[in-house]
Amino acid sequence: MGLWSRMKRSFRAMFGGIIEKTEDPELILQQTIRDMRDRVPELNNSVAQVMATEKLLSKSKERLESQVVDLDSKIKASVKMGRDDIATAYIGQLQQAQVDLQKTSQQLEHAQLASKQALKARDNYVLQMQRRTAEAMQLINQSKQAKLQEQLAQTMESFELGDDASTFNEMRDKIDRRAAAAEAKMQLGTASVDSQMHEIEREAMDMQLQDKLLDYKRQMGLLPASTGGAEPGALPAQGETSASNETRQMVKEGDGSAA
Fold it and tell me: pLDDT tens digits, residue range 130-173?
């Protein structure tokens, strides 16, 4: 291998590596999508020109057809009037118009075929562009995910487990202990209050039932009528424990006398 070939190979390898490192797949794919989208207006203009040619040929054909019909009528009129010279001139024009009509018809057929092919090519390009765009967007998302994973891997590599990890564990245990102690105190306080409230509610319900029982017995004449005091079913105030005990005693005596 010659010296120049070796040098060229070295330069290609060196600059190729530099270019490859500087290439960003996301930017290249995004530019490719933009380039494909920019070509759509150009294709539309080309298709429009082909279709415009078809329209012009179609109008030219209609005009020649009308001219042929008009010349045919003029020839017949000239023959009726005995003007063979005028009829001969019209015949020459008619022959030229028929030749032009034949050429225009052929051109129109080619233009119609070209329009269909241009429209088909444009539609195929748009479909291919949409498919390529979707693939490019998927590749861009994969590239972003790969970058994120690379950054995460670099972060994990630079993260050293040591005093920081032990500090986190120590602080976590401390916070867990404080949270457990606070939760236990809260449960204890709530249970105590709930227990007292339930006991008071049971006591009040028992007193109401006893008062109702006494009221029924008074109504039935089993006990003397009440001379005053709190209404049946009313909750006793603080310090009325002895009165409630007397009430229970009267209930027991009433039960004994009834027996």
Answer: 888 888 888 878 877 877 777 777 766 665 555 556 666 777 78
Q: Which CATH number fits domain 13-158: 1.10.3470, 1.20.120, 1.10.150, 1.10.287?
A: 1.10.287
**DSSP secondary structure string for all residues of 18-62:** HHHHH--HHHHHHHHHHHHHHHHHHHHHHHHHHHHHHHHHHHHHH
**The whole model's pTM is what?**
0.43
Is residue 235 within 8 Å of residue 206, measured between CB atoms? no
The domain limits of the chain are 13-158, 177-222
d(CA 201, CA 207): 10
d(CA 213, CA 251): 8
Contacts of 72 (CB under 8 A, 6+ apart): 94
Q: Which of 242, 257, 169, 252 is nearest to 213 (CA)?
A: 252
